[in-house]
Amino acid sequence: MTDAPAPAARPHETMLIVDFGSQVTQLIARRLREAHVYAEIHPFHRVTPALLEEIRPKGVILSGGPASVLEEGSPRAAPEIFTLGVPVLGICYGQQVMTVQLGGAVEGGHAGEFGRAFVSPTGEHANDPLFEGLFEDGREEVWMSHGDRVTALPPGFEVYGTSPGAPFAIIGDPARRFYGVQFHPEVHHTPRGARLLANFARNIAGFSGDWTMKAYKDEAIARIRAEVGPEGRVICGLSGGVDSSVAAVLIHEAIGDRLTCVFVDTGLMRAGEAEEVVGMFRDHYNIPLIHADESDLFLGALEGISDPEEKRKTIGRLFVEVFEKHAKEAGGAEFLAQGTLYPDVIESVSVTGGPSVTIKSHHNVGGLPEKMGMKLVEPLRELFKDEVRALGRELGLPERFIGRHPFPGPGLAIRCPGEVTREKLEILRRADAVFIDQIRRHGLYDEIWQAFAVLLPVRTVGVMGDGRTYDYACALRAVTSVDGMTADYYPFSHEFLGETATRIVGEVPGINRVTYDITSKPPGTIEWE
Ligand code: XMP
Description:
Elements: E1 14-19, H1 25-34, E2 38-43, H2 49-55, E3 59-62, E4 88-91, H3 93-101, E5 105-107, E6 113-121, E7 140-146, E8 149-152, E9 158-163, E10 166-173, E11 178-181, H4 193-204, H5 213-228, E12 234-238, H6 242-255, E13 259-265, H7 273-284, E14 289-293, H8 295-302, H9 308-330, E15 335-337, H10 342-348, H11 368-372, E16 375-377, H12 385-394, H13 399-402, H14 422-441, E17 450-464, E18 467-480, E19 488-489, H15 494-507, E20 511-516
Parallel strand pairs: 1-2, 1-3, 3-4, 4-11, 12-13, 12-15, 13-14, 15-16, 18-20
Antiparallel strand pairs: 5-8, 6-7, 6-9, 9-10, 10-11, 17-18, 18-19
Helix pairs in contact: 1-4, 5-6, 5-12, 6-12, 8-9, 14-15
The site of xanthosine-5'-monophosphate has 13 residues, from loops.
């Protein structure tokens, strides 16, 4: 989990989220931000009286976590949190920590509750401000995921809600305005959980909702200026994706021409991609831009390589080399900008500090800053994709750019299983273009997180006109997702699929068969490699 940046003074009413290592802690912040509440996440062991004094939170949320409060040495909340005089909400592990620290009891050994459950409010608390707009038909669906549970309430606490498996599903101390919930209101599986969190912030802790993307933008600009200083120069790698585009425009607003962008054309871009990106940045924004056509280098190095990780590593290594070369030419930048987002951070870093399994080596310019003696500027590090889009709108980026589907750094190489050749890339580009055109024509582009074609390394027999064909098969992939971490395949109609297959086989020489990938993530990943 990342530490939130620590500006000198908090310009907004602040919710402190104490992180006990849950995989979904960031979602608490995200739900609160949707309600225009500014939230900062700090790991439990860094929450000291000095930090509390610095932040002066208007409310505190204790996150879930993987530990058991019954284990020796398991994490605890800083006791000063409970004497600040501000409302506290404990979620799952946070509820249990609060319970044991304030004099109640938690037991293990019960059959845990995992998954969907229904919570109902207890009669006398049904009209509590925490429940505003909730429980309209008597109960709410929630997501439970716990082994231990509260068995005795601390002094001052009452039961506010129950579920069949959790008699203390919601507890509260009305005098101190402390609440605890056994379930996870922050996840999508608790459909109305966001409302509960918003109620806690607005109705219980009295937040006015003063945090907006406009405010974030202004603060991020101020922060970049402070970080980079009055003379500092920044280099930013543009990929054509929303993240690096938004980062570049934001930094440009902050420091103007002291930003230089480098667009490395790997030869693995989609049809028309390079022209579009370069055009937008040069023409629309007048941002100094180096367009490095390095396709020969990349495609040459990929010759003979068919292992996905080897492809990724080759591209990553070359990208760093090429980027470094052009950045040096741009002259004297001390800072490197990256459009790193929160999902990039959690998928590759283990919150417990232990080793996590590498599913795919993500391509980025990691390692470069130390090597080049550069400092990093990562203005989007705490944001989720949809927030980056909101920020892009705030910055006035054209909608066509903001709404773009994500495109991976290694590009079409990972959509071309087996060896990558120019011939295959050309076929893939054409099929992909038809697929995207179909999606746009049917008005589906914005409903889909990502859609693309994959050129399969198999040839199949077909018949066209009177002749036999022996050409490549292509797979189409389209998914819906909130953040790319999980995904469902998009349920196109049969008509759509049929029409698209007909168009691809008819319009793209080299392809005679089309399949549709209906695997979700997990167990599949979004990209094929
Ligand atoms: P997977 O395939 O891991 O993809 O389910 C999740 C999201 O990440 C994108 N992706 C990448 N993005 N560099 C990137 O910048 C990469 O190396 C990379 N690999 C996958 C993928 O397109 C999807 O949006």
